[in-house]
């Protein structure tokens, strides 16, 4: 057992901390997208050799999944942050839009949402599928929350929210600033309230 552990750890520097490595990789994937970040670059940035990389993460896709988990567990999970403020559905969704407007603009060269854009248009089918799964999970969480107050409109309203957030992320990556996104967030909050308050067609 000792020999096996030694073999697994061989080549990994003493300073290697997996959680820190995931956070570093998350930033690279967020900044440039899945396809633009290679294993050789990851190894160089993390200060480990390929055998240690594969022992720690299994594959680049495995590291990407861990990066998505790290991202969603932190302050970048704007819907979770919005829920912490309490209130009804419209209040929480409005807060979600405002959080997106605050978080999505470029900061130190990173803009938009990793979950929405990290694997967009990737040539790797598995990476695209993983990104789609995370986006579907995010939409489901929003839809289920909305359904508690607006069950008949939950799907329609969830589509409004997720489409708006995707547009905000894309706009931020294209250079939209915080003022533009705040204005848009206000428009979308009013649109959500209007749609939620409409009589069913």
From TrEMBL:
Chain ranges of the HTH tetR-type domain: 15-75
Gene3D superfamilies noted in UniProt: Homeodomain-like (1.10.10.60), Tetracycline Repressor, domain 2 (1.10.357.10)
Alphabetical UniProt keywords: DNA-binding, Transcription, Transcription regulation
Keyword Transcription: yes
Any matching Pfam family: TetR_N
Keyword check for Transcription: yes
GO molecular function per UniProt: DNA binding
DNA-binding residues (ranges): 38-57
Entry protein name: HTH-type transcriptional repressor BdcR
Protein source organism: Edaphosphingomonas haloaromaticamans
């Amino acid at each position: 057992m000792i020999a096996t552990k030694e073999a697994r750890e061989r080549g990994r520097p003493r300073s290697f901390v997996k959680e820190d490595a995931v956070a570093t990789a998350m930033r690279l994937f967020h900044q440039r997208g899945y396809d633009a970040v290679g294993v050789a670059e990851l190894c160089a940035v993390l200060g480990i050799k390929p055998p240690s990389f594969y022992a720690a993460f299994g594959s680049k896709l495995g590291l990407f999944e861990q990066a998505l988990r790290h991202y969603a567990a932190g302050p970048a999970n704007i819907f979770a942050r919005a829920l912490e403020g309490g209130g009804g559905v419209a209040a929480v969704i409005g807060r979600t839009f405002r959080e997106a407007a605050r978080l999505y603009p470029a900061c130190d060269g990173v803009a938009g949402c990793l979950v929405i854009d990290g694997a967009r248009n990737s040539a790797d089918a598995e990476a695209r599928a993983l990104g789609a799964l995370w986006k579907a999970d995010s939409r489901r969480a929003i839809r289920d929350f909305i359904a508690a107050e607006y069950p008949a409109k939950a799907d329609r309203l969830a589509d409004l929210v997720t489409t708006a957030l995707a547009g905000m992320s894309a706009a931020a990556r294209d250079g939209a600033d915080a003022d533009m996104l705040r204005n848009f967030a206000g428009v979308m909050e009013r649109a959500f309230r209007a749609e939620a308050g409409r009589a069913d067609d």
